[in-house]
């Protein structure tokens, strides 16, 4: 997490440990080296860890500027196993320099950090574009999204602005977290349910009665506006796969193979008003 990595950087900086003598690694991918001693990092959930991380970020912003902080925040959401060490080396160098390290594009550490931040920023944009909500039987909206970075804490605010009066939640089974919002909330919350509860959320199929019809409407609209030549046998297929990565296709309503039966009834709320009813009102 951002707090865990930045707080660890703060401890190393205060201890005046040389970069060559230490490396930061994720606990789930750590492989010890000969003569190496492993130390567990601070608990990112503790207030003291958060306070230390905030202190380090404030000092680094004073030294390197706000844009450097933005890129660190993005980079810390990356799933890259080398992320902690890249962030550590970037911040270690940044604290020791008076010029703006972020502007040194040929610097190896800066290049690595920029690559992480770009990948996460792209994944945030994928989330804004490819999350598809379904109205559930309790009138809440639910979506399942499987990103290649921990972007729910970064991009869920977009949906709060668009669905501020609704109750919704977004499930990320890859990182095991859920973003949620209710009308009485000013922002959104993040929770990490246990695996059994996460599986229950993902397996929910209790859709609202009119949800299949709404999905059919969206699919028909998509068919009407899509450009020709996007079939797998045509040249436009590669272009579609580039801008709409195939790993998201299973969650896109417009590409679903399920169609509404032709004899299905139109829900009352979508039948429209008759001329008589319009005159009466």
From TrEMBL:
Tell me the ranges covered by the DUF4130 domain, including all copies.
82-254
Q: What is this protein called?
A: TIGR03915 family putative DNA repair protein
Classification via InterPro entries: DNA_repair_put (IPR023875), DUF4130 (IPR025404)
